[in-house]
Design brief:
The protein is built from ten helices and no strands. The chain is mainly alpha-helical and 225 residues long.
């Protein structure tokens, strides 16, 4: 169990060299537009995306990817990978997941024997989205599905909070309060994602799509999305 835990912490760490810190996923634009002005606004924006976008689509898709990886079902994994890529509404979101997926594939190749098994599975498809490659690593390293989903959601919350700290800006204590509040939701959302049938998957979040599209022409930017 300790081996799996350390591997999970490594995958979820902000030190994972995939460039996640350079993306805000539209948060920078909602700050620029005045939609998010303070800690309460950041908590609402990130929390709504966690509940209605990440929790109802990306985490649910990740659960299916993990199962496909464990079953070595390349056809299914390829289908899920392309479905996620098709769900990226803006050019920046598409570029983000492909860049992070590519970076994780490259990292796995540099890990030697530890990365060999997930790398072999990841190389079976061409367009490497980040959650698909991440699922390959988590499955190969025998990380339990519930723990993997919780860690993936936590990693996203942490990255969004760090973006808010820089962009709003917020203090470090405010960031910790946001992560504490949103962290309390993750176990429930992970469990829901595990059980959700594909007919209920939904990433309908028009405000998020608009923010990501508007960011592409934002004049002054710290982040790449």
């Amino acid at each position: 169990m300790n081996h799996q835990l350390t591997r999970l912490l490594q995958l979820a760490s902000p030190a994972l060299p995939v460039g996640a810190y350079s993306y805000s996923q539209g948060l920078e634009w909602v700050v620029e537009s005045g939609t998010v002005r303070d800690e309460a606004g950041a908590l609402t924006w990130i929390g709504d995306l966690l509940e209605w976008n990440m929790g109802r689509f990306e985490a649910s898709l990740l659960a299916q990817m993990l199962r496909a990886c464990k079953a070595n079902d390349v056809t299914r994994l390829t289908q899920l990978n392309m479905r996620f890529l098709a769900s990226r509404e803006s050019a920046e979101l598409r570029a983000e997941t492909l860049q992070m997926g590519y970076s994780l594939v490259r990292l796995l190749s540099e890990l030697g024997d530890e990365g060999a098994q997930p790398l072999a599975l990841a190389r079976s498809f061409e367009a490497h989205t980040f959650p698909a490659v991440w699922a390959c690593a988590a499955a190969a390293w025998q990380i339990e599905e519930d723990a993997a989903l919780s860690a993936y959601l936590w990693s996203w919350v942490e990255n969004q909070t760090m973006a808010a700290i820089k962009a709003v800006p917020l203090g470090q204590a405010a960031g910790q309060r946001i992560m504490l509040a949103l962290g309390n939701r993750i176990a429930r959302l992970a469990e829901r994602a595990r059980q959700m049938p594909e007919t209920d998957f939904s990433n309908f979040a028009p405000g998020f799509a608009i923010a990501c599209s508007q960011h592409e022409t934002q004049y002054s930017r710290l982040f790449r999305s």
